[in-house]
Amino acid sequence: MKLNLNGNISQVGIARELGLHPSSIQGWIRKYKAFGPEGLKTIKKNTHYSSELKLSAVKDYINGKGSLADISLKYNLSCTGILTQWINKYNKCHKTCKSHNNKGDHIMTNGRKTTYEERIEIVAFCIANANDYNLTANKYKVSYQQVYTWINKYNRGGYEALVDRRGKRKKLEDLSESEKIAAQLKLLESENRRLKMENDFLKKLDEIERR
Protein backbone atom coordinates (compact mmCIF):
# COMPACT_ATOMS: atom_id res chain seq x y z
CA MET A 1 0.00 0.00 0.00
CA LYS A 2 2.79 2.43 0.91
CA LEU A 3 4.53 1.60 -2.36
CA ASN A 4 1.48 2.82 -4.25
CA LEU A 5 1.02 5.93 -2.12
CA ASN A 6 4.67 6.80 -2.71
CA GLY A 7 4.20 6.33 -6.45
CA ASN A 8 6.62 3.41 -6.68
CA ILE A 9 4.10 0.96 -8.14
CA SER A 10 0.83 1.72 -9.91
CA GLN A 11 -2.53 0.42 -8.72
CA VAL A 12 -2.78 -1.72 -11.84
CA GLY A 13 0.67 -3.14 -11.15
CA ILE A 14 -0.19 -4.07 -7.57
CA ALA A 15 -3.52 -5.57 -8.64
CA ARG A 16 -1.76 -7.68 -11.28
CA GLU A 17 0.80 -8.93 -8.74
CA LEU A 18 -1.90 -9.88 -6.23
CA GLY A 19 -4.35 -11.21 -8.80
CA LEU A 20 -7.00 -8.68 -7.82
CA HIS A 21 -9.17 -6.16 -9.63
CA PRO A 22 -7.80 -2.57 -9.54
CA SER A 23 -11.01 -1.41 -7.83
CA SER A 24 -10.07 -3.51 -4.79
CA ILE A 25 -6.76 -1.68 -4.53
CA GLN A 26 -8.55 1.66 -4.89
CA GLY A 27 -10.86 0.72 -2.03
CA TRP A 28 -7.93 -0.17 0.21
CA ILE A 29 -6.23 3.13 -0.57
CA ARG A 30 -9.36 5.10 0.33
CA LYS A 31 -9.64 3.23 3.63
CA TYR A 32 -5.95 3.69 4.40
CA LYS A 33 -6.18 7.43 3.78
CA ALA A 34 -9.32 7.74 5.91
CA PHE A 35 -8.55 5.38 8.79
CA GLY A 36 -4.84 4.57 8.54
CA PRO A 37 -3.59 0.98 9.03
CA GLU A 38 -6.68 0.17 11.14
CA GLY A 39 -8.84 0.61 8.07
CA LEU A 40 -7.11 -2.30 6.35
CA LYS A 41 -7.90 -4.85 9.03
CA THR A 42 -10.07 -7.69 7.77
CA ILE A 43 -13.72 -7.29 8.66
CA LYS A 44 -15.52 -10.49 9.64
CA LYS A 45 -18.14 -11.61 7.14
CA ASN A 46 -20.83 -11.73 9.83
CA THR A 47 -20.32 -8.11 10.86
CA HIS A 48 -23.61 -6.72 12.15
CA TYR A 49 -24.81 -3.35 10.92
CA SER A 50 -27.71 -1.72 12.74
CA SER A 51 -30.91 -0.99 10.85
CA GLU A 52 -30.46 2.70 11.60
CA LEU A 53 -26.99 2.70 10.04
CA LYS A 54 -28.31 0.93 6.94
CA LEU A 55 -31.10 3.45 6.49
CA SER A 56 -28.74 6.39 7.04
CA ALA A 57 -26.31 5.04 4.45
CA VAL A 58 -29.06 4.42 1.89
CA LYS A 59 -30.59 7.88 2.39
CA ASP A 60 -27.17 9.53 2.09
CA TYR A 61 -26.70 7.86 -1.29
CA ILE A 62 -30.23 8.56 -2.53
CA ASN A 63 -29.89 12.22 -1.52
CA GLY A 64 -26.68 12.55 -3.52
CA LYS A 65 -24.31 12.98 -0.58
CA GLY A 66 -21.64 10.85 -2.22
CA SER A 67 -20.85 7.95 -4.54
CA LEU A 68 -21.18 4.29 -3.56
CA ALA A 69 -17.50 4.33 -2.64
CA ASP A 70 -17.83 7.57 -0.63
CA ILE A 71 -20.81 6.35 1.40
CA SER A 72 -19.26 2.91 1.94
CA LEU A 73 -16.13 4.59 3.27
CA LYS A 74 -18.11 6.96 5.49
CA TYR A 75 -19.88 4.05 7.19
CA ASN A 76 -16.79 1.80 7.14
CA LEU A 77 -18.42 -0.90 5.01
CA SER A 78 -16.20 -3.69 3.78
CA CYS A 79 -17.26 -3.15 0.15
CA THR A 80 -19.67 -1.16 -2.01
CA GLY A 81 -21.62 -4.34 -2.74
CA ILE A 82 -23.09 -4.24 0.77
CA LEU A 83 -24.45 -0.74 0.21
CA THR A 84 -25.78 -1.73 -3.21
CA GLN A 85 -27.76 -4.58 -1.61
CA TRP A 86 -29.28 -2.23 0.94
CA ILE A 87 -30.23 0.26 -1.78
CA ASN A 88 -31.88 -2.49 -3.85
CA LYS A 89 -33.89 -3.67 -0.84
CA TYR A 90 -34.89 -0.10 -0.05
CA ASN A 91 -36.06 0.54 -3.61
CA LYS A 92 -38.12 -2.67 -3.66
CA CYS A 93 -39.88 -1.56 -0.48
CA HIS A 94 -40.79 1.79 -2.04
CA LYS A 95 -42.02 0.79 -5.50
CA THR A 96 -45.64 1.55 -4.75
CA CYS A 97 -46.72 3.47 -7.82
CA LYS A 98 -44.43 2.55 -10.69
CA SER A 99 -46.10 -0.67 -11.81
CA HIS A 100 -48.83 1.19 -13.70
CA ASN A 101 -46.31 3.00 -15.88
CA ASN A 102 -43.61 1.12 -17.77
CA LYS A 103 -42.04 4.43 -18.72
CA GLY A 104 -41.29 5.36 -15.13
CA ASP A 105 -37.69 6.30 -15.93
CA HIS A 106 -38.76 9.01 -18.37
CA ILE A 107 -38.19 12.53 -17.11
CA MET A 108 -40.04 15.49 -18.60
CA THR A 109 -37.62 18.15 -19.75
CA ASN A 110 -40.12 21.03 -19.79
CA GLY A 111 -41.67 22.44 -16.66
CA ARG A 112 -45.07 24.14 -16.38
CA LYS A 113 -46.73 26.81 -14.31
CA THR A 114 -48.27 25.57 -11.08
CA THR A 115 -50.48 26.98 -8.35
CA TYR A 116 -49.55 27.08 -4.69
CA GLU A 117 -52.07 24.30 -4.01
CA GLU A 118 -50.51 22.13 -6.71
CA ARG A 119 -47.02 22.62 -5.30
CA ILE A 120 -48.22 21.58 -1.85
CA GLU A 121 -49.78 18.42 -3.31
CA ILE A 122 -46.67 17.65 -5.41
CA VAL A 123 -44.28 18.08 -2.48
CA ALA A 124 -46.52 15.99 -0.23
CA PHE A 125 -46.64 13.18 -2.80
CA CYS A 126 -42.88 13.27 -3.32
CA ILE A 127 -42.13 13.13 0.42
CA ALA A 128 -44.59 10.29 0.93
CA ASN A 129 -42.85 8.34 -1.84
CA ALA A 130 -39.29 8.55 -0.47
CA ASN A 131 -38.36 11.65 -2.51
CA ASP A 132 -38.83 9.84 -5.82
CA TYR A 133 -38.43 12.86 -8.11
CA ASN A 134 -38.90 10.87 -11.33
CA LEU A 135 -42.16 9.32 -10.18
CA THR A 136 -43.48 12.67 -8.97
CA ALA A 137 -42.47 14.55 -12.13
CA ASN A 138 -44.22 11.99 -14.33
CA LYS A 139 -47.37 11.87 -12.22
CA TYR A 140 -47.89 15.64 -12.13
CA LYS A 141 -46.44 16.43 -15.58
CA VAL A 142 -43.78 18.79 -14.28
CA SER A 143 -40.02 18.72 -14.66
CA TYR A 144 -37.61 16.82 -12.44
CA GLN A 145 -35.85 20.10 -11.65
CA GLN A 146 -39.09 21.72 -10.49
CA VAL A 147 -39.78 18.89 -8.06
CA TYR A 148 -36.21 18.98 -6.80
CA THR A 149 -36.39 22.76 -6.28
CA TRP A 150 -39.71 22.64 -4.42
CA ILE A 151 -38.50 19.88 -2.09
CA ASN A 152 -35.38 21.91 -1.30
CA LYS A 153 -37.45 25.03 -0.66
CA TYR A 154 -39.79 23.11 1.64
CA ASN A 155 -36.87 21.57 3.55
CA ARG A 156 -35.36 25.02 4.09
CA GLY A 157 -38.44 27.12 4.77
CA GLY A 158 -41.49 24.90 5.27
CA TYR A 159 -44.78 25.26 3.40
CA GLU A 160 -44.44 29.05 3.28
CA ALA A 161 -41.42 28.69 0.98
CA LEU A 162 -43.68 27.17 -1.69
CA VAL A 163 -45.54 30.43 -2.24
CA ASP A 164 -44.57 32.02 -5.57
CA ARG A 165 -43.60 35.62 -4.80
CA ARG A 166 -43.26 36.69 -8.43
CA GLY A 167 -45.70 39.00 -10.23
CA LYS A 168 -49.36 38.86 -9.27
CA ARG A 169 -49.40 35.28 -8.07
CA LYS A 170 -50.69 34.46 -4.63
CA LYS A 171 -48.49 35.87 -1.87
CA LEU A 172 -48.01 34.46 1.61
CA GLU A 173 -50.08 37.23 3.22
CA ASP A 174 -52.94 36.46 0.79
CA LEU A 175 -53.33 32.92 2.14
CA SER A 176 -56.26 32.40 4.46
CA GLU A 177 -55.75 30.70 7.80
CA SER A 178 -57.66 27.65 6.55
CA GLU A 179 -55.36 27.40 3.50
CA LYS A 180 -52.29 27.51 5.72
CA ILE A 181 -53.69 24.82 8.02
CA ALA A 182 -54.70 22.64 5.06
CA ALA A 183 -51.18 22.87 3.64
CA GLN A 184 -49.60 21.99 6.97
CA LEU A 185 -51.90 19.00 7.43
CA LYS A 186 -51.24 17.65 3.93
CA LEU A 187 -47.48 17.89 4.40
CA LEU A 188 -47.67 16.40 7.89
CA GLU A 189 -49.64 13.44 6.55
CA SER A 190 -47.00 12.85 3.88
CA GLU A 191 -44.22 13.01 6.49
CA ASN A 192 -46.06 10.43 8.60
CA ARG A 193 -46.50 8.17 5.59
CA ARG A 194 -42.78 8.45 4.79
CA LEU A 195 -41.87 7.54 8.38
CA LYS A 196 -44.18 4.52 8.23
CA MET A 197 -42.54 3.38 4.99
CA GLU A 198 -39.10 3.73 6.57
CA ASN A 199 -40.22 1.71 9.59
CA ASP A 200 -41.63 -0.97 7.27
CA PHE A 201 -38.28 -1.02 5.48
CA LEU A 202 -36.39 -1.54 8.75
CA LYS A 203 -38.74 -4.37 9.75
CA LYS A 204 -38.29 -6.01 6.35
CA LEU A 205 -34.51 -5.83 6.69
CA ASP A 206 -34.69 -7.46 10.11
CA GLU A 207 -36.93 -10.23 8.75
CA ILE A 208 -34.52 -10.94 5.89
CA GLU A 209 -31.52 -11.06 8.22
CA ARG A 210 -33.24 -13.48 10.61
CA ARG A 211 -33.87 -16.03 7.86
Topology:
Elements: H1 2-5, H2 11-18, H3 22-35, H4 51-62, H5 68-74, H6 80-93, H7 116-128, H8 133-140, H9 144-157, H10 177-210
Helix pairs in contact: 2-3, 4-5, 4-6, 5-6, 7-8, 7-9, 7-10, 8-9
Describe the protein in words:
- There is one protein chain.
- The chain is an all-alpha fold.
- The protein has 3 domains: 1-41, no CATH class; 50-93; 116-210, no CATH class.
- Helices cover 61% and strands 0% of the residues.
- The protein contains 10 helices and no strands.
Q: What's the pLDDT, averaged over the residues? A: 71
Give the DSSP E fraction (strand runs of 2 or more residues): under 5%
Structural class, from secondary structure content?
A: mainly alpha
Low-confidence parts lasting 5 or more residues at pLDDT below 50? 1-6, 96-109
Number of DSSP helices? 10
Radius of gyration, whole Å: 22 Å
